[in-house]
Amino acid sequence: MSTLCSENYRHFYNALQAETVSSDDILNLVPGALEYVVDELHIGKFEIQIELAASSSEAAAYNKSKVMYVSPDGFDYMAHARVIKTLDKGRVSFAVFPQKGYEWNDEEKGALDHLIKNLFIIMAKARLTELVKKRQLTDHLTMLPNTTSFSMFARDLGLKGILGQYTVIFSNLKNFSYINQTLGSRAGDIVLKEYANKLKDMFSTGEIIARFGGDNFVALLKDENVDKYLKNISRINIPVALGNQTRTFTITARSGIYSIPETMSNPGEAVTRANISLEHARHSGDSDRIYFTEQILAQANREREIISEFKKALSRKEFIVYYQPKVNLTTGAISGCEALVRWNKNGQIIPPVQFIPVLETQGMICELDFYVLDRVCADIVSWIRDGITPARVSVNFSKHHLRNPNLVDDIMAVITSHGISPTLIEIELTESASGEDYVMLGQFIDELKTHGIFTSIDDFGTGYSSLSLLKDLHVNVIKIDKSFVDNIAGKDKRDRIILGSILTMVTGLGMEVIAEGCEDEEQARILKEMDCTTIQGYLFDKPMACEEFTRKLSEKFIYDVSL
């Protein structure tokens, strides 16, 4: 045992203390370290075999057998063998053979055991350090590199001056939420893992594909491999075992693509630009593959500006309400109106198309909707105070409100705070909202009706569930989408036939009908012939400021409906 306290043993031990995090590095150091003790311990041959099973930290099993030392003078075959089991059900086997013609005594075998145990401890420490570092750089679900690993890899390319030879592809799985919502998160995780396994075969040395959380994946590929990768991810079949059956999901990806220029050395900026392109693809619907352009960047900057300024603009009451009349085609009287918001930004009136989609995407639209409702109620109060008979006002509410369990109470709180009748308010939802959650939407509409608040469905006919909507949702008003009105005066009679059928069904169910987007007299004449008595469109008036609409209400303005 004294041998292991010798100077040679200290040399052996110190030779294994290099700064390293790799098990392979330790194994490479062992042969040199053994040179210090083989003579004192009469070692003729030294072998190590490592067997590690696949685990949550390692996607594949690890098996390696290595001869660490062989004496030039030969060795005897009577091995001193030891097997040490690891905590993850692996094993490390050591086989030490004496020098040729030598036989160890019990004390020397004890020294060998001590050497083996110390070597195992050093190897285990390196292994643990290696796994910790790998864990820090690996996504635990998919075993792909994570964002930290991606950043390190990209930074190295920048330091080598070759980042400009690469393209960033930021991808998001289309309709992945459907899997989670219908089959549960466990099935979703299986799909993500299998999808990641497919991705692992799609990049080569010098490239990387990482998971950026959720169902987002980012690839940094050499320019010449981009088209092949995009083709591969356009359609991937993932079989998932669900109980006693296997279901195959066809996964498609939406991607933002940025080809890194030679002048760029900041990989973070490259990823940002690819992500901006992805967001553009997600919301524009033009294509599943969008390459970055300066125009997309300018639009993204405008959107960021809207988001950053929205709260202050709301508190400063920069948003103003315009009103567009709904006109009775029989009498020419104003039968109601729709409240439409504009942004008075530094004296410039910004139309809703420039900010509503951004607020909708960010989920900030709900605050604006309640702001508009509050302004509408205030205007109604002023009309009543001035002796003006108020029109019923429809206020648009986003589908995002359906997540609010207290939505009806919140709406009623605004109305009652102004002391007006709920019958003067109509809550308007787009047909697309009905597809989100029919049950929740139906309950919301029914609750509003119990309080006397009218409800309407906007853009009717543009969704896939129009007939179910008529059957299941007890709304007061159906607003026919402009697309049906546009072509009713044309030679093709199909639009007119479809519109006539819709009008018959809606009126037969006791609902009011309003035709949106009526812009010329011929359209109005045909609508009147089809017994659609209320229209809203530029033929009579565009949306107008509250002062002008108030004047028309006070005058009991009558439009010319002699068509």
Describe this structure in words.
With 563 residues, this protein is α/β, with parallel strands linked by helices. It folds into 3 domains: 2-137, Beta-Lactamase (2-Layer Sandwich); 147-292, Alpha-Beta Plaits (2-Layer Sandwich), CATH 3.30.70.270; 304-469 and 538-555, TIM Barrel. Helix content is 43%, strand content 23%. The protein has helices at residues 7-15, 23-34, 106-137, 147-160, 176-183, 185-199, 226-233, 267-284, 294-315, 356-362, 365-385, 407-418, 431-434, 438-450, 466-472, 482-486, 494-508, 521-529, 546-555; strands at residues 43-52, 62-70, 80-85, 91-98, 166-173, 208-211, 216-222, 236-242, 245-251, 253-259, 289-291, 319-328, 334-345, 348-350, 393-396, 425-430, 454-460, 477-480, 512-516, 534-536, 544-545. The chain has an 8-stranded mixed barrel with strand order 12-13-15-16-17-18-19-20, surrounded by 5 helices. Strands 6-7-5-10-11 form a 5-stranded mixed sheet, with helices on both faces. Strand 6 (208-211) and strand 7 form a beta hairpin. The longest helix has 32 residues, at 106-137. It is elongated, with a radius of gyration of 36 Å. It starts with 6 loop residues before the first helix and ends in an 8-residue tail after the last helix.
